[in-house]
Amino acid sequence: MTTQREITAEMGAARGAYEKRLADGGGVEHHPSRAYAPYRSSVLRHPHRPLVAVEGDPEAVELSGPVFGATDVTALDCDLTRQHTGEPLGERITVSGRLLDGRGRPVRRQLIEVWQANASGRYAHQRDDHPAPLDPNFTGVGRVLTGDDGGYAFTTVKPGAYPWRNHDNAWRPAHIHFSVFGEAFTQRLVTQMYFPGDPLFPYDPILQSVTDERARQRLVAVYDHELSAPEFSLGYRWDIVLDGPSATWIEEGR
Amino acid sequence: MPDTPAFPPTPSQTVGPFYGYALPFPGGGDVAPAGHPDAITVHGVVHDGAGAPVPDALLEFWQGGPGTGLPGSMRRSPVNGGFLGRNGVDFTGFGRVATDADGHYALRTLPPRTPAPLPYLSVCVFARGLMHHLYTRVYLADGEDALLGSLEPARRATLVAAPEENPARHRAYRFDIRLQGEGETVFLEFH
């Protein structure tokens, strides 16, 4: 099995290659490359051919997107600690922030879905056979509609780190998965939010697939003491910015 | 995109292997209103670069146009927090289907009506191992279209669903997705 040392060397080489592209005048790469071999599952699952650009077509169906409303969420969906009869184990936290477009405008009334492992690092999923305990009081799924200021908030417990089989002694840093809709299908985003100061960051090929340092930092939430509730929960803040054109952008000539 | 937009985007990360208890929802592939006589089925298999089926891909479908864009794709029960299913009347235009153990998916929807003259379904592909989702389109027939017209014939064919000849399958179209290699599906980016 591949060792962490080998994966770390591959990740370093990918960062070095990116820095050379930047030095040669290449653009900032905000998203991970789909061809990122240190994450072994990507090898057979990315296209070899370049993407075909669809530019400035005001008729493109992708410039609009699905609509969600009050019927698609319940009041408890944003509180992952109240979905069972008892309290889940772990460190109770809130994660809140704003959903914005590339111009900094709030993205209103759109759906954010989250899922995560429990405090022990175990998912409520049959294929997760990590020998850590399941928590009968925690499923780890939530959803919320953003408010008129683009704001969202979840109450949950801090997920644990967990092992995986990408390479020998591979561990994922604690993270929460986010699925986000914008105004247009082109703005769709699925990503992962991490917690500040996690010592596993340099070892994880999924986080490190974002080779740009500043872009990578944007995946890490900020601890905000103002958001902590006395004798109840610790507060993390994480803003999400969508890219991709929308009908509004095209109408405004961008 | 400019290199340093005022608000640089949040990077994408893979959907991973464990979204199955979070994102798929009952009736996610049943977009057509219940019993609608015009309903069609679009189905196929997602393949990886070795030709193997991908059992942990998640496909989302969107079709715009008049009468679409209503909420209620994943109605929730305020009683027990479970899913209620669609209301059977409204057409939301949004579908979400996970592939099964054979890499197969099926979507039951209405024929897309926009844009003229050659409508299509928009598809967004997520999978374990895929760092950043991929967009493609399902055209139900070949014809006059700016995107199709820009592609060489073999690549163009990857975007056109094939009507099923099996008479047991009512108004069904076959649309396979190949993530890599021979017959690789055309994937799109939007600017």
TrEMBL record, chain A:
Residues 95-123 form the Intradiol ring-cleavage dioxygenases domain. GO terms for molecular function: ferric iron binding; protocatechuate 3,4-dioxygenase activity. InterPro entries: Intradiol_dOase_C, Intradiol_dOase_core, Intradiol_RC_Dioxygenase, PCDO_beta_N, Protocat_dOase_b. The keyword Nuclease does not apply. Keywords: Dioxygenase, Oxidoreductase. This is Protocatechuate 3,4-dioxygenase subunit beta. Its EC number is 1.13.11.3. Pfam families: Dioxygenase_C (PF00775), PCDO_beta_N (PF12391). GO terms for biological process: 3,4-dihydroxybenzoate catabolic process. Belongs to the intradiol ring-cleavage dioxygenase family.
UniProtKB/TrEMBL annotation, chain B:
It is an enzyme of class 1 (oxidoreductase). Keywords: Oxidoreductase. One of its GO terms (molecular function) is iron ion binding. It comes from the Bacteria. Its EC number is 1.13.11.3. Transmembrane segments: none annotated. The keyword Oxidoreductase applies. This is Protocatechuate 3,4-dioxygenase subunit alpha. It comes from Streptomyces montanisoli. The gene is pcaG.
